[in-house]
Automatic annotation (TrEMBL):
Assembly and interaction partners: Monomer.
Keyword Metal-binding: no
Superkingdom of origin organism: Bacteria
Protein name: Aldose 1-epimerase
Keywords: Calcium
Keyword Mitochondrion: no
Family matches, as PANTHER family: ALDOSE-1-EPIMERASE, GALACTOSE MUTAROTASE
């Protein structure tokens, strides 16, 4: 069979591998560590590219504070001082950012996800994981969160998330994915990036939004000597927005597509780490600090579900 799913030990962690035998395309998933994708390898012609940068050891993965490949739910990025108001009521989240200033990146990081389903077919294989939030500090809502990873025969990797409000009251939700992408052994300064936006979020010194302004940059633009730690507004009309990382030396383009439209991934964070050996490209369903601003925030009624899809492929 061209696709298979198997599990193996990675130190004390158990990981699941979705693999296509004919191409070597594979993704490696760690349910007990926040359901993250530890590795994603995709082939173009004769070359198999490992496109995700994550800590290389089990200990490094467990201790990672940079959120490599993590699922950010029910909020992404920062909430200042961990405080927000929802339907007139104040809430206090744990201030878990380094330095203790803010709440950051949600409540499911490094949690033990439940393996709900695995499926192998002739042209794709998928793995579905879930975690239920219930009476969590600062977020007293019961929400069932799931993510389905799929590897397709045409070389696409998809991440499909879904959140269902199992509570008796409305709840705020936001989702983001936090992958660091790489292309071979090249440094980021050799790549070009094409950002699907003409509007950027302005931040204060605490990386909290203060407004928006026009964004003008050549598409694509060379990353050489450019540093990003920014949030962009993505036009939702197209139904799909694509960020491209381009290596002309290797003749390959990494495409990160995010579903846009009402309630979908209409925001995007781009970050170039100081080591400049990767680029974080983070599709978001709402703006930074949306729990306070409401900008893009999804509010789920009891029993309501929200979902969306991110796709990664090589061109």
């Amino acid at each position: 069979m061209p696709f298979e799913i198997f599990k193996q030990q990675f130190g004390e962690l158990t990981e699941y591998i979705i693999q296509e035998a004919s191409t070597g395309n594979r993704c490696v998933i760690v349910p007990e560590l926040g359901g993250i994708v530890r590795q994603l390898s995709l082939r173009k012609n004769l070359t198999l590219f490992s496109v995700l940068k994550t800590p290389p050891t089990p200990h490094g993965l467990v201790q990672d504070a940079k959120s490599a490949s993590e699922l950010l739910f029910p909020f992404a990025s920062r909430i200042p001082d961990g405080k927000y108001r929802f339907l007139g009521k104040p809430y206090q989240l744990a201030k878990n950012e380094t330095g203790g200033l803010n709440a950051i990146h949600g409540l499911v990081r490094k949690k033990n996800f439940h393996l709900e389903e695995q499926s192998v077919h002739a042209d794709y294989a998928s793995l579905k994981l879930s975690f239920t939030l219930n009476e969590t500090e600062g977020y007293p809502f019961e929400v069932h969160f799931s993510v389905e990873y799929t590897l397709h025969a045409d070389g696409r990797f998809t991440l499909h998330y879904e959140a269902r409000n199992n509570d008796s009251q409305p709840c705020p939700v936001m989702f983001g994915w936090h992958p660091y992408f790489q292309i071979g052994d090249e440094m980021a300064d050799a790549w070009k990036v094409s950002i699907p936006s003409n509007e950027i979020v302005t931040f204060d010194s605490n990386q909290i939004p203060t407004g928006k302004e026009p964004f003008y940059l050549e598409k694509p633009t060379l990353l050489y000597r450019k540093a990003f730690d920014n949030c962009f507004i993505v036009a939702p009309e197209s139904g799909n927005a694509v960020t491209e990382l381009i290596s002309e030396n290797q003749n390959v383009t990494l495409r990160i597509s995010q579903e846009t439209g009402e309630g979908k991934f209409n925001f995007l964070v781009l970050y170039t780490p100081p080591a400049r050996d990767c680029v974080a490209i983070e599709p978001l369903t709402a703006n930074v600090d949306s729990f306070n601003s409401g900008d893009g925030l999804n509010i789920l009624a009891p029993g309501q579900t929200i979902s969306g899809t991110i796709t990664v492929n090589l061109a």
